[in-house]
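Progress note, sequence design subtask.
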């Protein structure tokens, strides 16, 4: 299994979110490889320095981990930081508009999107209600981005969640360069806002195709028990073995190697 959407931190930030803790979680869950996101700069103390540089420096000791940067695309030097992240071996970027406070289709950040498309980097967006003005980060705003940059690889995490799922599905149906991130979507008790349920995941496979679906753990916000439960749920879905294989790593492997 090759999973997406693992948040990692220096030990000084989260003792349960270190790379070592991620490796142990992977072992317990039978996961072979994982994509790990650098911490958000907005949350990182100055003592850590640049979070993307921190992650890139750590990765040689963890060959099972593929690194993604965290960059605010509205920052003045975002394109240069994107190029630097690529040069450091980071293959994508985690974007969270509600935390980073940017509008998804702001023309002022199209240079960032253009450079990501040129480099072949994956842009992984948080979608779903998250306590900011919804009109700034509604998933349908990404339709502008996907249309303008048809080779840009876009992952929408949580598939819009419970309340914006149908809009996220519309986005997926309209743009073949958009992929469904199945992260924190299957545990209603813990993630009420992002729950789409087994039926929603099966619908995505029928309507969009499992070759555009990617499972993510949301580590460390989900621990071993939650991740095992997710995996068991996906393996029990009314899908073919090939479709399950795609969700559990095949699609992710494909977009990371596609240039």
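Output:
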């Amino acid at each position: 299994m090759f999973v997406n959407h693992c948040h990692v931190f220096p030990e000084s930030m989260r003792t349960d979110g270190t790379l070592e803790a991620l490796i142990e979680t992977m072992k317990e869950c039978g996961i072979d490889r994982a994509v790990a996101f650098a911490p958000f700069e907005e949350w990182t103390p100055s003592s850590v320095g640049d979070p993307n540089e921190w992650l890139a420096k750590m990765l040689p000791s963890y060959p099972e981990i593929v690194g993604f940067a965290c960059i605010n695309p509205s920052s003045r030097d975002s394109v240069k930081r994107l190029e630097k992240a690529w040069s450091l071996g980071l293959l994508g970027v985690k974007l969270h508009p509600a935390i980073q406070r940017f509008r998804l289709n702001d023309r002022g950040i199209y240079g960032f999107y253009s450079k990501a498309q040129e480099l072949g980097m994956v842009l992984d967006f948080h979608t779903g209600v998250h306590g900011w003005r919804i009109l700034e980060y509604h998933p349908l705003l990404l339709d502008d981005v996907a249309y303008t940059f048809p080779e840009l690889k876009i992952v929408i995490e949580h598939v819009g969640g419970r309340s914006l799922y149908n809009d996220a599905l519309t986005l997926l149906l309209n743009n073949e360069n958009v992929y469904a991130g199945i992260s924190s979507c299957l545990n209603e008790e813990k993630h009420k806002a992002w729950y789409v349920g087994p039926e929603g995941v099966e619908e995505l496979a029928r309507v969009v195709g499992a070759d555009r679906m990617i499972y993510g753990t949301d580590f460390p916000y989900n621990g071993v028990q939650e991740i095992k439960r997710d995996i068991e749920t996906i393996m029990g879905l009314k899908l073919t073995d090939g479709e399950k294989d795609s969700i559990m790593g095949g699609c992710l492997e494909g977009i990371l190697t596609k240039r």
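The mean pLDDT is 97. Work on this subtask will continue into the next period as scheduled.
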